[in-house]
């Protein structure tokens, strides 16, 4: 019976049972009960939403035992819950809008025992359509110079669905109260599913709530490079460089580390990261990590570090469902002003199932073909365009991409990663950067490092330029299409 109940039914039954029990609730506590909404159910965990910090404190402390027991009674199994503040209320608070908190109800207990008003049932499987420029992986990258956060990656432009909603809810709760319940928070899943977006959203949301926080986003490659630079100086300046390195990473309130799996095998980096992790954890600072695998499956890392990763909360992001893929495509098409029939969106969602970047690449290819041939987008056009566009089991690396692109343009590997700015070399380099972004899980920063230490903004410009050229230039479209096919087939690897 409990398995078939939605969040509304669970809360209505729980509310009534609570009022029927001799709990001796104060009017203030009853008012807090009236403020609760159950907004999601994930297995044995419920997500409760309230309108203020004071209400959350009551719900988490004074009402915890009663709520936990009653939720378990209603669901027929042991249940737990997390409490978040309504995102809309937080946004209003950030804009200095006074938000009323629940007040004691001026009624007698008999009146209070009226059934709770119905609350809106959440849509767990049905994805929410969000405003333009929203995606699991935001294309724009306005990187903050101090925090290194992508300011475009927020919770309000993260497309939710049943495959990622739990991770989003936990991430949001972490941003609200860093260093409390979920520390460290370990987010894992395949490439292109939104891990980087969530890491940045946590930092941006935390700063929205408290601008005085010190936040730092990094990835394993950047952490390693900065450590190498600090250690590479002469003896007289090395100490000062290490002090500055430690200040950047240990003097923060929230540390967000992407692609943590790549520190494996680098003994000096592992030791520095272990010490950084310990110091922040002992100070009660929030640590959020992202990886392509759960902590227990990390290879090449010492057990002591894996143990610390596991002591918090590991949450997964799974590949998007068909419905979520369609929702993402609809949002992307709207943002790019692409007129595309629903049957074509469904076709793309059926054809591409592995990750969001590939999904967006398929949409770009269809749009480019329609633009180049001066046709409207139809199912037949989409089928022809995507006939060789399939999910690949071949591992594609930046080295593969650069090698193939160099051969295609009759250049050398060194030309692509070197400093030459001649027109043909620059074009080939930009195509290689675009393919690296579309076909690998690498961040803009990592791609820039691979291409001769170039800045992430250079990579971002290249991706946008090639994407736009594909709509207008048949040569660019053909190059990207043929190279993608060759890379996915693994020809010559």
Automatic annotation (TrEMBL):
Residues 1-115 are annotated as: Domain I, interacts with DnaA modulators. The keyword ATP-binding applies. CDD domains: AAA (cd00009), Bac_DnaA_C (cd06571). Residues 397-466 form the Chromosomal replication initiator DnaA C-terminal domain. It is found in: Cytoplasm. Keywords: ATP-binding, Cytoplasm, DNA replication, DNA-binding, Lipid-binding, Nucleotide-binding. GO terms for biological process: DNA replication initiation; regulation of DNA replication. Residues 371-493 are annotated as: Domain IV, binds dsDNA. SMART domains: AAA (SM00382), Bac_DnaA_C (SM00760). GO terms for molecular function: ATP binding; DNA replication origin binding; lipid binding. InterPro entries: AAA+_ATPase (IPR003593), Chromosome_initiator_DnaA (IPR001957), Chromosome_initiator_DnaA-like (IPR020591), Chromosome_initiator_DnaA_CS (IPR018312), DnaA_C (IPR013159), DnaA_dom (IPR013317), P-loop_NTPase (IPR027417), Trp_repressor/repl_initiator (IPR010921). Pfam families: Bac_DnaA (PF00308), Bac_DnaA_C (PF08299). Belongs to the DnaA family. Oligomerizes as a right-handed, spiral filament on DNA at oriC. Plays an essential role in the initiation and regulation of chromosomal replication. ATP-DnaA binds to the origin of replication (oriC) to initiate formation of the DNA replication initiation complex once per cell cycle. Binds the DnaA box (a 9 base pair repeat at the origin) and separates the double-stranded (ds)DNA. Forms a right-handed helical filament on oriC DNA; dsDNA binds to the exterior of the filament while single-stranded (ss)DNA is stabiized in the filament's interior. Domain I is involved in oligomerization and binding regulators, domain II is flexibile and of varying length in different bacteria, domain III forms the AAA+ region, while domain IV binds dsDNA. This is Chromosomal replication initiator protein DnaA. It comes from Alloscardovia macacae.
